[in-house]
Amino acid sequence: MTYLQKMKGGGQSPPKVGLTEILWSWVGSFAGIAGVALIHYKILDQSGLMLILGSFGASAVLIYGAVRSPLAQPRNLLGGHILSAIVGVTACQWLGGTPWLAAAVAVSLSIALMHLTGTLHPPGGATALIAVIGGDSVHSLGYFYVVMPVALGAVVMLLVAVLVNNIPATRKYPEFWL
Amino acid sequence: MPKNTFALPPRVDISEQDVMQAMSTIQGYIDITPGDFREVYRAACSLAVKRLLTSLKAADLMTGTVHLVETEMPLVAAAALLAEKGISGAPVVDGDGKIVGVVSEKDFLREMGFVTTPSFMQIATHCLNDKSCMICRLRNKVVGDIMSRPPVTGSPEMTIGEISQLFQSREINRLPIVAADGRPVGIVTRTDLAHSFHRFAEGMEP
């Protein structure tokens, strides 16, 4: 297959899901995001920290919408967010003077690290990026960013996933823990 | 899309349509394209087929008690032995007990002048029309005169895949299994092979 032929694609998308699946994806993500958003707005209420919600919105797609996905498992959810947060803060502290470079390094290194550790979780890329572009309120947290909001939020999301995803007979979560 | 390194025989291959249908029977979003799944299936299936074809060895399939004939044995006696044991062929051994050939119905018939293996009715027709039945030609000969040689043999470690391929390519119906010293230790017949197939399904839910 040549370089140009590869660009044609040619495969197909997996089948669409049924209504039950859509319903439970909605229920799970509503509850999960409600949980983290409540904590942020009612308890933390710091404008800078709100940005991390974007990252959890992405996680919600996976852990409530594609519960079987290897990318959606607890190891990936927690590992991906926490490792990426560490990489993001480190990149920001070392290369913060050149923000575009710090941003690129944060995301690319976090993907490499997630691959290396078997914790690939796409929203981790956002978590690493936000550590750089999140502004002063995020920067001032330093490595505490890893614990709060990142780890705390991920744990709340996970808790909701385990509680909600196991209600319907057709769903089971997680496939594996570690 | 990476090149497929595993080619499967059509019988066990699947289409993307099969995968799509199968995926539709499973609740939940499955995070893999049908094409990629097919690739995983092909790789796994080819490993399973390989394991299947090597799972049984000659030693597991063979009949351990082999009826042997010697090269100097008169054909009349050899025929009587095959008839008595209810078999259609046997390994031929020399004075040291080492295999030197195989003798079977086919060799008898060839000696009688038949080019292709005839049915009983063809032989009967032939003998009834012909005053002198060709079987008389066999009267003063010994096994060594008509046997097939060199013998096609196998070792006890030979796998079922290799054996069935040998049956096919050499057009034989029995394979003497010989030890390293050339002495027959068993024999695998087409019947043994046919009987072994149910063992592939051992442990499977009915």
Give a structural overview.
The complex is a heterodimer of chains A (178) and B (206). Chain A is an all-alpha fold and 178 residues long. Chain A has one domain (20-165). Chain A has 8 helices and no strands. In chain A, helix 4 (74-95) runs parallel beside helix 6 and helix 4 packs antiparallel against helix 8 (144-165). Chain A is globular and about 50 Å long. Chain B has 2 domains: 1-55, no CATH class; 59-200, CBS-domain, CATH 3.10.580. Chain B is built from 9 helices and 5 strands. In chain B, 19% of the residues are buried. Classes of the chains: A mainly alpha (178), B alpha+beta (206). Chain A binds chain B through residues 1, 6, 10-15, 17-18, 20-21, 65-72, 170-171, and chain B through 1, 3, 16, 20, 23-24, 27-36.
| Count of distinct structural domains of chain B | 2
Largest sheet of chain B: 3 strands, mixed
Question: CATH H level of the largest domain in chain B: which superfamily?
Answer: CBS-domain
Q: Name the chain pair with the biggest interface and residue counts per chain.
A: A-B, 22 and 16 residues
- Strand order within the widest beta sheet of chain B: 1-2-3
Cα(first) to Cα(last) distance of chain B is: 38 Å
- The end-to-end span of chain A amounts to 37 Å
Query: What is the beta-strand fraction of chain A?
Result: under 5%
Number of strands of chain A: 0
Largest sheet of chain A: none
CATH topology of the largest domain in chain B: CBS-domain
CATH architecture of the largest domain in chain B: Roll
Average pLDDT of chain A:
92
Oligomer: heterodimer
